[in-house]
């Protein structure tokens, strides 16, 4: 029996499986591998590089890589095989991107939504951190964070949305809150088309805590930086699954 095909020294593969650049190593690793799979750089039936090589290419730990591979396996993109010619293989019938409820021009809608969200929510976090928040607002932000952290996956996106809206409300700008609510509705339509990944939820909980801490500490640069990193992780997953 001959060994299965697998990627060799392919410059195109190197272009996709490049090191993660932000603090969202898990999300970026998922995005990079999904892009390589969905664009046919690693075709159906082919074996992904060995874990050690793949982790080095992506610039992530073996633990993070295994979590990313597990997420792709659960989403139906790859499968693990044992034995002499074992490894991680692209499934012969990986899921098609998108869903019927998504807009026809998905790429444009995705990038427009992500750009608008980055501008609105990063600005909202910085603005909220720069205000003298009342005791009631401070309690409200802590309560929203507690309500979201460790939430049941079935209810996670609703609680996540409510936390982000609470941050917008803390700016005391009804117009900004309305704008954030509008972009969140668009975002949720996109998020509903991709799987909920436990590792991403855990990472988001940590990032939410960093955002709220920076706001309550009155540190606008830290609040903007924490929010920007958080949004970047979500963007990586959406681009990976839907682009």
UniProtKB/TrEMBL annotation:
Keyword DNA-binding included in the entry's annotation: yes
GO molecular function terms noted in the UniProt entry: DNA binding; DNA-binding transcription factor activity
Domain HTH gntR-type, residue spans: 23-93
Keywords: DNA-binding, Transcription, Transcription regulation
Superkingdom of origin: Bacteria
InterPro entries according to UniProt: GntR_C, TF_FadR/GntR_C, Tscrpt_reg_HTH_GntR, WH-like_DNA-bd_sf, WH_DNA-bd_sf
Record Pfam families: FCD, GntR
The UniProt record lists the keyword Phosphoprotein: no
PANTHER family per the UniProt record, alphabetical: GLUCONATE OPERON TRANSCRIPTIONAL REPRESSOR, TRANSCRIPTIONAL REGULATOR, GNTR FAMILY
Protein name: GntR family transcriptional regulator
Source organism (scientific name): Actinokineospora bangkokensis
